[in-house]
Write a structure and sequence with these properties.
47% helix, Rossmann fold, 6% strand, 3 domains, DNA Cyclobutane Dipyrimidine Photolyase, subunit A, domain 3, 471 residues, Serine Threonine Protein Phosphatase 5, Tetratricopeptide repeat, mainly alpha, binds flavin-adenine dinucleotide, 5-stranded parallel beta sheet, 20 helices
Length: 471
């Protein structure tokens, strides 16, 4: 019996188009492993919705591996520090030849992976690492001077110029390795998932569900994505973010599918091209995290705003989290998040700007709350989105740009369908009154008055940022 190759699954929970798995199979029989690092994930602030989704995806993966006859072991490694010894012990027990895994980019993950690699090499075992969760490897999309990009549009231009869609075609599926094995009833059991509020049925785990959503999106919404993606009452986006975050879908699969359905998706500005742009935003933030370690340490990307003083207002924070700010679009978004573990992108920007600009509160508080609640919680995209909104990040919205939640709601939910869905106490208001309920005969009694005056709080934020940027 030849020595097995160990394949370490992490945030790449699928069988198809899995670089490490396919490379390992080419070298010999595979033994798959997943490490339960719940203590570390909790330290990173990963919430119950995300962990429950991870559990479901590991279960689907375990079933798929069993059907192919590939043995799968889930091991306890509470902290990343434990990974080298736990994996080395498994490799010893199995007499494994090499270790295969796909790269992750936040600082702690890179340090863990480097420590694992060093431990394996010391023991004389080969380690094979792959670029898989992004199409372009960090470090390959650089300016003419060899510097990393900190602005999205030139990054995107260069990313597209470097892209070879043929080379980036999905790699296919692994082959059966023997008779099917009995699937585990519960491959992974995490403690924190009891607190998950997002119904499991909203976010079924696994790559089959990811493919179903991808197909449905391409057939029904992609052509009009550019026109519809900003309207939260419309199903205009793919809802694939949780699947991309845990790797139940690879970016290569997403790109190949959109190019198959819309061959001109790399040119022009239609729905498919705009969707490809969003996939590139995802890559951009991963490159930022891979390149600038201070981002993983929780620091503002821009040094000018590193020490910006923020307001301390626990009551306002509680109202924001509960969807009780008195600003309907903000509240609808926060209630959508609490109920589903997901929020529409336009509304994410609105609630984030409201917290960091109108309430002048630290973006870290919003970042942490999102990570605690989101089913698609992803350090790079979440940090990027928060620092964009707070004007502290790469290519951020300039500090004087402050979304007005009332204007945004009038523009992107003109009939108030989204507001009515999440704010039942406003359901009887018509399309004019619902955006500013306080202006109409005092507003409904069950709904709070706005926490802040929008005009005054906007002026306060601009003055505050200006003073700090100058000083
Ligand atoms: C404050 C804030 C926090 C965010 N936190 C997260 C997060 O934790 N995880 C996450 O995946 N996205 C996050 N985003 C980005 C974006 O809101 C979601 O990716 C998107 O709403 C997911 O919906 P979808 O799958 O229908 O996206 P689609 O519109 O169908 O887009 C396709 C895919 O592109 C990627 N994508 C789209 N927009 C962005 C973006 N702005 N930045 C990075 N990737 C993007 C996602 O993987 C998404 O699934 C955040 C945005 C903001 C403003």
């Amino acid at each position: 019996m030849p020595s097995p190759q160990l394949v370490w699954f992490r945030q790449d929970l699928r069988l198809a188009d899995h670089r490490a798995l396919l490379a390992a199979q080419a070298a010999g029989p595979v033994h798959a492993v997943f490490l339960n690092a719940e203590a570390q994930w909790q330290r990173h602030g990963v919430g119950a919705n995300r962990l429950a989704f991870l559990e479901r995806c590991v279960q689907r993966l375990a079933e798929g591996l069993a059907a192919l006859g590939i043995p799968f072991t889930v091991l306890e490694a509470p902290r990343f520090l434990d990974a080298p010894s736990v994996l080395a012990a498994l490799a010893d027990r199995l007499g494994a030849e090499g270790l295969y895994f796909n790269n992750e980019y936040p600082l702690n993950e890179r340090r863990r992976d480097d420590a694992v690699e060093a431990a394996f090499r010391r023991a004389g075992r080969a380690v094979h690492r792959f670029t898989d969760s992004v199409i372009a490897a960090p470090g390959t999309v650089m300016t003419g001077q060899g510097a990393p990009y900190t602005v999205f549009t030139p990054f995107k231009r260069r990313w597209l110029a470097l892209l070879d869609p043929v080379a980036q075609r999905p790699l296919g599926t692994p082959r059966p390795q023997g008779a099917p094995l009995p699937p585990p009833t519960r491959a992974l059991q995490l403690a924190k998932t009891q607190g998950a509020a997002a119904p499991a049925g909203l976010w079924p785990g696994g790559e089959g569900e990811a493919q179903r959503r991808l197909d449905a999106f391409l057939a029904q919404a992609c052509a009009a994505y550019d026109a519809q993606r900003d309207f939260p009452a419309v199903t205009g986006t793919s809802t694939l973010s949780p699947y991309l975050a845990v790797g139940a879908l690879s970016p290569r699969q997403a790109l190949a599918a959109v190019l198959g359905a819309f061959p001109d998706a790399l040119e022009g500005a239609g729905g498919a091209a705009t969707w490809v742009s969003e996939l590139i935003w995802r890559e951009f933030y991963r490159h930022v995290v891979a390149t600038f370690d201070h981002v993983s340490r929780g620091e503002a990307f821009r040094p000018a705003f590193a020490d910006l003083p923020w307001r301390d207002d626990p009551e306002a924070l509680t109202a924001w989290k509960a969807g009780q700010t008195g600003l309907p679009l903000v509240d609808a978004g926060m209630r959508e998040l609490a109920a589903t573990g997901w929020m529409h992108n336009r509304v994410r920007m609105v609630v984030a700007m409201f917290l960091t600009k109108n309430l002048l509160m630290d973006w870290h508080l919003g970042e942490a709350h999102f990570l605690d609640q989101l089913v698609d919680g992803d350090f790079a995209a979440n940090n990027g989105g928060w620092q964009w909104s707070a004007a502290t990040g790469t290519d951020a919205a300039p500090y004087f740009r402050v979304f007005n939640p009332v204007t945004q709601s009038q523009r992107f939910d003109p009939e108030g369908h989204y507001l009515r869905k999440w704010l039942p106490e406003l359901a009887s208001l018509d399309a004019r009154a619902i955006h500013e309920p306080w202006r109409w005969a005092g507003g409904p009694r069950a709904y709070p008055r706005p926490l802040v005056d929008l005009k005054a709080s906007r002026a306060r934020a601009i003055a505050h940022f200006k003073a700090h940027a100058a000083g």
